[in-house]
Design a protein that fits this description.
There is one protein chain. It contains seven helices and four strands. By secondary structure, the protein is of the alpha+beta class. The chain has two domains: 2-93, no CATH class; 99-215, no CATH class. Strands 1-2-3-4 form a four-stranded mixed sheet. Helix 1 (2-33) crosses helix 3 (62-93) and helix 2 packs antiparallel against helix 3 (62-93). 19% of the residues are buried. Mean pLDDT is 77; it is low at 1-5 and 211-236.
Length: 236
């Protein structure tokens, strides 16, 4: 039992430096685009603690309200830091290829994301996410060129999964587009119309179609005119 306790404490000790290192890296990344993040977070903590401590002196309970103020100040600092870090991360990702795919990977549980299900020569790309809201196609690139890509992909989805609703989102700041930082919120607001088994079935159908396409034999050269495939499906 003692060995097990020692191993658990060792694992916790090893995990804490990892978390602290991650927080430090996040702070450095945020500070590149938000130089005042440290001052703002510290200010929020000091003000929150000061207000509760002052109330404690007025009511005659400075110790209790001081402790409560310290805990709430720490919570407020964490919330403010998280929001500013998220804003900085979106600012750095915006305009970068594959940014929408990175956002889709972090939408939350219950969503299955497949990046780059369609792409053209200009590198306009469509990603796919499947969840209880149905299928969401997210396009990033030139809005005019994305129209044909999204239309073709929606037509394909209607043939594979007939009974599943298909939504489309174009990432951008123009009219009718969704900013990168609002893609996750937009998807989570979609009405949930599918059950868990229906989502699994839709994913299985899409995965099977992908495997079928990837395993389909392709001719190495042009097929001679008038040549027919044998009934067995294999060329001799």
């Amino acid at each position: 039992m003692a060995r097990k306790a020692n191993s658990d404490s060792g694992a916790d000790a090893a995990a804490n430096p990892g978390r602290l290192k991650q927080i430090a890296l996040t702070y450095k990344m945020t500070r590149r685009t938000d130089p005042k993040v440290g001052l703002v977070v510290a200010g929020v903590g000091i003000v929150t603690f000061g207000v509760f401590l002052a109330i404690g002196f007025v009511l005659g309970f400075p110790v209790y309200l001081g402790i409560l103020g310290f805990l709430l100040a720490f919570l407020a600092m964490a919330i403010i830091f998280g929001r500013r870090a998220e804003r900085a991360a979106f600012g750095q990702m915006e305009g970068q290829p594959g940014a929408a795919a990175a956002v889709l990977q972090n939408v939350g549980r219950g969503w299955t994301t497949t990046p780059a299900v369609a792409m053209n020569r200009s590198q306009d790309v469509v990603h796919r996410a499947v969840g209880k809201a149905g299928i969401v196609l997210v396009g990033e690139g030139n809005p005019n060129r994305l129209k044909s890509l999204l239309a073709a992909e929606k037509k394909k989805m209607s043939r594979i999964v007939v009974d599943v609703p298909v939504h489309d989102i174009v990432v951008g700041d123009g009219e009718g587009q969704v900013p990168l930082k609002k893609v996750r919120t937009t998807m989570l607001k979609l009405p949930r119309v599918l059950s868990g088994p229906q989502v699994t079935a839709a994913n299985d159908r899409l995965r099977a179609m992908g495997d079928l396409m990837s395993n389909m034999p392709m001719p190495k050269g042009p097929m001679p005119k008038g040549m027919r495939m044998p009934r067995g499906g294999k060329m001799r």
